[in-house]
Amino acid sequence: MRLSRRTMALGLGATALAACSGGPGSRTLAPAGADPAMRPARNPAFDAWLDGFRPRARAAGISEATLERALPRAGFLPGVVERDRNQAEFTRSLEDYLAIAASDERVAMGRAMRRRHVATLAAIDARYGVEPEIVTAIWGLESRYGERRGDIPVISALATLAFDGRRGPFFERQLVAALRILERGDITPDRMTGSWAGAMGHTQFIPTSFEAYAVDFTGDGRRDIWSDDPTDALASAAAYLDRFGWRRGQPWGVEVRLPAGFSGPLGRGTTRSPAAWAAAGVRDMDGHRVPDHGPASILRPAGAAGPAFMVFPNFGVIARYNNAESYVIGVGHLADRIAGGPPIRASFPPDAEGLTLSDRKEIQERLTRAGFDTNGVDGVIGSSTEAAIRAYERARRLPETGRATRALLDRLRRSA
Nearest to residue 404, comparing CAs of 348, 350, 353? Predict the structure, then answer.
């Protein structure tokens, strides 16, 4: 498997977003002091491993002074091992993912952030040729515009994962890179915080990618992606995209209508010119031929009954940031919405229970009105909604399933 900028650090974008709606498995991190599992625990074997790591770090060029600043405060974090071993293998539907990634709230926040940082984003655009809405969208998906940067000590997290051994060589490389970042003076050990797997800052770079692509846009001598000031982090994301060939002024993709009976070819492995797709009957959502933005592929990520997209080279550039298809569409669509574009116009097929997104929202609305709070109305059936359903079923002396079903919706309607 090719390692992306943060593969194995936070997982797929669909997982990374899960908690943003109370449900995109998530990157929401409890304060380190609030979660006992994220507090250092005595572990003599870890201490011995750390002693054995020191010579390897010195051989990699890390000074004794940096090792003395960083390693004595490193501790074994049981919660990091638990999360690494128990990452849920699940996928959200694209409809659910986009309901979170490009929710009205996230779009409104993105527009506000673009206005707040208009001068900075314009300067970044001028240097790297990456539009403000794309940079803002990545920021929105990676850390909810800086709200969820992570507060777990990175040296401890990476040392724990390197010691644990399941992916030891990878995480030891990340640990050495993190020490080099400290050696360079970009950050201090106490401020080097991030996710449980070492992804850092507003735009969630793992240490090796930080070394390769992060930039000092403010000119203060430090590449500070952790600061409340997001300038260096936003510029680093743009520099990353620029390095991998971002084409300014070109879309990531366009929602399209496919002709009746269209059978492909589908997928990023097959490209045609937009003119060739037009000759096959593909049109944009207003019935027009799609302009030529370069080699294009057709994606139907939700199947034949869902929306279709014609995607261009910039799709592949975003995929270098995170190769999950839903993530790329999430970034692209959120960027389009921040820029004033419309929601996706095609409908999605009903879920396995026969419910549409509006049906699921209605369930959440009716449960909340009945006193069973679902912690928001987004149509995504996450843990909060499942708990509310179980509480409702318990109160009505029904079997406790936690499932959003057509029968549940009908019962809620009858009892309104």
Answer: 353
The token duo for 84 is: 């690494």
Higher pLDDT, 166 or 293: 293
Q: Radius of gyration of the chain from Cα atoms?
A: 23
**Averaged pLDDT, 8-19:** 35
Express the helix, strand and coil content of the chain in percent, nearest 5 each.
50, 5, 45
Taking the C-alpha atoms of residue 224 and residue 210, their distance in angstroms, rounded to an integer, is: 10
pLDDT of residue 90: 55
CA distance 124 to 386: 43
Among 6, 14, 116, CA closest to 329: 14
Mean pLDDT, all residues of the chain: 89
Q: Kindly state the tokens that stand for 95.
A: 């409809």
Alpha-carbon dihedral 187, 176, 207, 45, rounded to 10 degrees:
-100
In the annotation, is 142 catalytic?
Answer: yes
**151-166 b/e (C-beta count within 10 Å ≥ 16 → b):** bbbbbbbbbbbbbbee
Note the Cα 363 to chain centre separation in Å: 27
Q: Angle at which helices 325-338 and 94-101 pack, to 10 degrees?
A: 40
Contact 387, 340 (CB under 8 A): no
Tokens of 370: 């009945």
- Omega within 30 of 0 (cis) for the link into 207: no
Distances (CA, A) of 52 to 49, 57, 60, 317: 5, 9, 14, 39
- Which candidate in 133, 142, 325, 393 is catalytic? 142
Per-residue b/e over 20-41, b at no fewer than 16 CB within 10 Å? bbbbbbbbbbeebeeeeebebe
Neighbour count for residue 387 (Cβ, 10 Å): 16
pLDDT digits 0-9 by tens, 333-386: 999 999 999 999 999 999 989 999 999 999 999 999 999 999 989 999 988 999
Residue 194 near residue 148, CB atoms below 8 Å = no
